Amino acid sequence: MLTSYHHKVIYSGTGRRKTSVARVNLIPGSGKLIINGLPGESYLQFSPNYLRISCSPLNLLGLSKEYDIYVKTQGGGLTGQADAIRLGLARALCNINSDNRVMLKSEGLLSRDARSKERKKYGLRKARKAPQYSKR
């Protein structure tokens, strides 16, 4: 989605993973990452893995210093949020230029990971773990 904010062009995309939702806005800039008002590094606890996952669509296209990323994310934990940011970012990059879509799709960055926690069933300890069987 394309909107204009104080004469700056904003590209947006929404990403989801597990129970996390991330609304990603891309603004032409210097490459900073802001998540829920905090610098991305501190929000993701300086984890190189989470930072790499979150910014992978930009790095793939070689645009890591071209856009500022502003993210509002909620729900889930850091793993789900990092993956949600990645999907939202990839979708926003598709709005910028449809040529980006081919490259992102071939790397699998545009597909939503549908895996989520399976519900617990009655009579079981977890979704599938049964209590210990006692013969007598």
Features:
alpha+beta; Ribosomal Protein S5, domain 2; 4 helices; Ribsml_uS5_D2-typ_fold_subgr
Number of strands: 6
Number of helices: 4
Low-confidence stretches: none
Main beta sheet, described?
6 strands, mixed
- Provide the spatial order of strands within the biggest beta sheet: 1-2-3-6-4-5
Describe the global form: elongated
- Strand portion: 25-35%
Tell me the number of structural domains: 1
Instruction: Provide the gyration radius in Å.
Output: 18 Å
The CA-CA distance between the termini, in Å, is: 64 Å
What percent of the residues sit in helical stretches (DSSP H or I)? 25-40%
Helix-strand sequence: EEEEEHHEHH
- CATH architecture term: 2-Layer Sandwich
**Would you tell me the overall average pLDDT?**
91
CATH topology: Ribosomal Protein S5, domain 2
Overall SS class: alpha+beta
CATH level 1 name: Alpha Beta
Protein name: Small ribosomal subunit protein uS9c
Family: Belongs to the universal ribosomal protein uS9 family.
Subcellular location: Plastid, Chloroplast
Organism: Polysiphonia elongata
